[in-house]
Predict the structure of UDP-N-acetylglucosamine 1-carboxyvinyltransferase.
Amino acid sequence: MDRFIIRGGNRLEGEITIGGAKNAGLKLMVAGLLTSERLRLSNVPRIADIATMRDLLMQHGVAVEDVTGDGRTLSIGGAITSVEAPYDIVSKMRASILVLGPLLARMHEARVSLPGGCAIGTRPVDMHLKGLETLGAQIALDGGYIHARAPGGLKGERVILPFASVGATENLLMAATLARGRTEIVNAAREPEICDLVTCLNRMGARISGSGTGTLVIDGVEALHGVEHAIMADRIECGTYACAAGITGGDLRLIGGRASDLGAVIRALEEAGVEVIAEENAIRVRRNGPLRGVDIMTEPYPGFPTDMQAQFMAMLSIAEGASMITETIFENRFMHVPELNRMGARINVHGSSAIIRGVDALSGAPVMATDLRASFSLILAGLAARGETVLSRIYHLDRGYEAVDRKLAAVGAAIERVSD
Ligand SMILES: CC(=O)N[C@H]1[C@@H](OP(=O)(O)OP(=O)(O)OC[C@H]2O[C@@H](n3ccc(=O)[nH]c3=O)[C@H](O)[C@@H]2O)O[C@H](CO)[C@@H](O)[C@@H]1O
Ligand SMILES: C=C(OP(=O)(O)O)C(=O)O
């Protein structure tokens, strides 16, 4: 199993190119199930989750071709020969649940393994299922699988989500594009990745309005067609490297980063004493003065993203004064706390809040990654710590960050990937 060895203390300076967004790319790949024509996606990140989604689409019989031979442009399409999403793939990647709506819409049937919980929470899919039932699906749970049928096709309806779930919004949105009549999704999630999906679906011939608002209106169409679409830049990767500049007192230009997607993150960075300058097609992030403690609460977009919580916690662990981070999206997303404390941080968790008392310095230690963003928080801590940090279980990181060691080493970090 691979590990990262990080020797802390280097100030990071230079340019990092931000890749395509994992959380947009995965859903855009799934959108390929909605048409028999070719969907060509560019700016594809080379990460493990994209490879897993490729396996899943191929399991459905759909072709996924690497057009340019470098994994950056994928052409997806063809006949669906299986409506089953098996346990071994779904258990690797929860986003697999998103094939449910498109399969139902196009094939009128789907058999998808229940994803179960993961390191950050129980993560039920009740809103996905209830919403699809409202659109006329008959759903049965059997042997750990969701068996869904819509013999006469799905029918547009008004669906009110009790919580603005990203995944439920996307599943229902994709299902509704091929349903009969009008669907309204009320209390829809407004994440930029959903807007990217809507843009692509509309280009494919879907009739969706309300993108970026809490109500999506979808007028179903007979069929969608193939298009080309470039995946948006990854706002979470961008925010993560912004924290790398913040924690090391560095100066990074994040090429491709879009300030408009990062409002709450930029506000929190600035409050913490990190300067952020929006440039054309880039964001420059630097810190000269001290880091200051800030209070943060995670919320659905446009609030502060839960996917940036662990990285901010690492950065605030060496800030002047205290910070409080409240996690409202997932019930168990503090697994990085004991690992950060092993590196000398002073963090206490009280229910859904963590109190971070800034320390003068962290010290390197062997630590273990527990999930994707938690893994990066430990890298950030390692970059700022005295001495050597050895981060194991980095397969979590490979799910969603491309070439972390190469990108960080290019801006001055002492980081090395080693295999046992
Ligand atoms: C692949 C992807 O895009 N993942 C993102 C997506 O996850 P995901 O789509 O799973 O996140 P959701 O917005 O659906 O989940 C938010 C909360 O709602 C709960 N819930 C959700 C659905 C449901 O049917 N019932 C239910 O109770 C979840 O357990 C969680 O506590 O949005 C999250 C919130 O921004 C991000 O952290 C993830 O990175
Ligand atoms: C939680 C995340 O992803 P997933 O929903 O795929 O687990 C994430 O990207 O931080």
Residues 233-419 form a domain with the UDP-n-acetylglucosamine1-carboxyvinyl-transferase; Chain fold (CATH 3.65.10.10). The two ends are 6 Å apart (CA to CA). The pocket of phosphoenolpyruvate (ligand 2) is lined by residues 23, 94-95, 307, 372-373, 400 (CB under 6 Å). The chain has a mean pLDDT of 97.
